[in-house]
Design a protein that fits this description.
- The chain is an alpha/beta fold.
- It has one domain: 3-Layer(aba) Sandwich (Rossmann fold), CATH 3.40.50.1820.
- It contains seven helices and nine strands; from the N terminus they run E-E-H-H-E-E-E-H-E-H-E-H-E-H-E-H.
- Strands 1-3-2-6-7-8-9 form a seven-stranded mixed sheet, sandwiched between helices. The chain has a two-stranded antiparallel ribbon with strand order 4-5.
- Helix 5 links the parallel strand 7 and strand 8.
- Helix 3 packs across helix 4.
- It is globular, with a radius of gyration of 16 Å.
- The model has no long low-confidence stretch (mean pLDDT 97).
- Belongs to the AB hydrolase superfamily. AB hydrolase 2 family.
- GO terms for molecular function: hydrolase activity.
- It holds the Pfam family Abhydrolase_2.
- This is Alpha/beta fold hydrolase.
Length: 216
């Protein structure tokens, strides 16, 4: 099985990790892109360890960066097959990190951006024990109807999206929220006016508050 690795930030408190936050980047980026969120999130989670793994595959649409799956073909079935290939690789990484810090699922959160959100929303519900929280920025849920049969755990979910997103249409967030709610998940959403495919201060603050509530 392919091994993932990426940049990390140790707990701001200097103590042993009591929580683990795994940050999943988007297409064409790498772990360095999202580990920059860690100092902000640590305001609410001083005892959390943060790690941002590089996605397993080189980006096939740019001469640099990584990808969880290809987006050359946007057919939902093709994208879903790519997610299903990457999912066990991510699951193995999560299991390894939980064992490394001696933490159970209730002390773990996934935070994704764009393609990282798609991975988070696929992997988290299919694990046997619920994570403390899942936060998804500027992403989408593929095959949401499959959760009715495939969801094994139902962590609380926060979805944040800018209404000026030129990459992933903002309509993807209410669609994802509806499918998750239909499958029995508790979901919160925040639509950020005028925000493109990025994370703005209002969205970041909402994520900090949400993680602080569910992880401590």
């Amino acid at each position: 099985m392919m091994e993932l690795d990426g940049p990390e930030q140790t707990p701001a408190s200097g103590a042993a990790a009591k929580q683990l936050v795994i940050l999943l980047h988007g297409l064409g980026a790498d772990g360095n892109d999202l580990i920059a969120l860690a100092p902000h999130l640590a305001q609410a989670l001083p005892d959390a360890h943060f790690i941002a793994p590089d996605a397993p595959f080189p980006c096939d649409m740019a001469p640099y960066g990584r990808q969880w799956f290809s987006l050359q073909d946007r057919d939902p079935a093709v994208m879903l097959s790519g997610i299903r290939i990457a999912a066990p690789i991510l699951d193995g990484f999560i299991d390894k990190q939980m064992a490394r810090f001696g933490l159970d699922a209730g002390a773990v959160a996934l935070v994704g951006f764009s393609q990282g959100t798609m991975m988070s929303l696929h992997v988290a519900p299919r694990r046997p024990d619920p994570f403390a929280a899942v936060v998804g920025f500027s992403g989408a849920l593929l095959a949401g109807e499959a959760l009715l049969d495939e969801a094994r755990s139902k962590p609380p979910v926060l979805l944040i999206h800018g209404d000026a997103d030129e990459v992933v249409p903002v309509q993807a967030t209410p669609a994802a929220a509806g499918a998750l709610q239909d499958a029995g998940f508790t979901v919160e959403t925040l639509i950020c006016p005028g925000v493109p495919h990025s994370i703005d201060p209002a969205g970041l603050k909402r994520a900090i508050d949400f993680l602080g509530k569910h992880l401590t």
